[in-house]
Amino acid sequence: MKKYIYNPLLFLAILIFTACNDDFLQLNPKDMLSEETFWADETDAFNALVGVYSRYTDYDNINIFYDQLLGLSARSDEAVNVWKGSNYNNLGLGNISPFDDYMSIQWSIRYRIIRTCNVFLKNIDKPVMKDDERERMKAEVKFLRAFAYHYLLNNFGGVPIIEEPLTLQELKRPRDTAEDVLKFILEDLDDDVINLLPLTYSDSYKGRITRGAAYALKARVYLYAGKWKDAAVAAKTVMDFNTYTLFPHYEDLFESANKYNDEILYAWQYVGQEMANYTQIYMHFPTYGGWGGVNPLKSFVDEFLCTDGKPTYTSAVYNPAKPYENRDPRFYMSVIYPGAVYRGNVIPVYGTLDYPGETGNSSQSGYYVRKFLDDVSVSNNLRPEESNVILLRYAEVLLTYAEAKVEANEIDQSVFDAINLLRARAYGVNISQTTLYPAVTGGTQNELRDIVRRERLVELCFEGQRRDDIIRWRMAENVMNGSCYGIPETVGGDYILVMERRFDPAIHYLFPIPQSEIDLVGKDILLQNPGWE
Predict the structure, then answer these.
(1) CA neighbor of 231 nearest in space, from 443, 472, 455
(2) In this predicted model, what pLDDT tens digit does every residue of 312-327 receive, in sequence order?
């Protein structure tokens, strides 16, 4: 996107688009924007489009950023949040209720986004502009609306489908079924709609939704719904565009300098200090001046294979006395552990501010996230950077394709290739150099299912998908119940007990509908999820 995307005019436009008082919009004030004067030409349409995009990153919706960055891993078996009493940890602990602010915030944020999309779609036929540009903008906004509904569906199940910018009274709608919400999402991602999108944009418009991004989201939606053949087709469509490729270096693809590399299909855009990304401050460890926001768990660390392609409990190259040696290279690019080397310096953890309990920002587990730390960051002078938050990338498309083909029991060489491309990239070699990395060359459906699931955990770690994965695989009660641990309290000692978690499969597979929404709409209209009544 253009750098002027986050200007005051834009935020004024957002306020107008999301106002709930229809009478206010009819006043047509002479000194500010209104629906009467705004939708005149293509410039207005573009500014409106920018307003829709910005609903995902503007200050009013900063909780989306916090949740994506600090919260989603803590809702899974990957990690915990550094602050013990945070909403994110309460979710991981199973301590949630319909009265929690977190529930109402996440619900209302998505519906604000949906309303902004609906206002745009209601008005976009008004401006005098080229029809092909108009239709392309509609497709972009439908993608953004589908993205919001996809979140609601995954977390709450069936929700009210709203297609118009309604008044408060009109919003008193019952819930639609999960099947109807899924159908609505797929209608917004219909082939005839997303094929109106270009494969690429000029440098001035980088960050806008492309055809590849739309098909990648469609593949994810199908995958989560268990529609394997449709997921494989959508993913293969992206692969056949030959527009996207894996970035050569796994670690570097998250650097600010590489924010527009060819692996990224969709990312939230950040621009300097005008709309900055605080990842570096949130994620760096205390001795570097950071907040240590996400703390990986021992169980997650244990999931990384050894260099012979085997898990620690069967590998001949695993040494319990030196547990961090001979592991998948992505481990070293994703996790800071005791003795890890960062920027040429050894991070001992023990005896430093980074040890659990030393400060309010010291990891609960003793582990820290390495994955998103940017080389432009300066120790004890951390500042917001221009890196983007990646939501869809080509690696996920490959994994979606592999999983869908395995689950459909249509296993062929293309499945092995999709997995091996990722493993070869991690080892810094070509896919054909099968003696230099643990290549997948065969296996039963069950064996390959386990391989793909572990590969998703390792490749996509801390990117916000693990929670959705353990939910859709119906394995959350197996990995989110009981004790979770960190590093040994002392070298060679017992492991630090981080917390005791609870996941009740009778209720926790869906969030409760926020009680504030039920009170507003009516308990006989907006029904609560089972078990939360």
Answers:
(1) 472
(2) 999 999 999 999 999 9
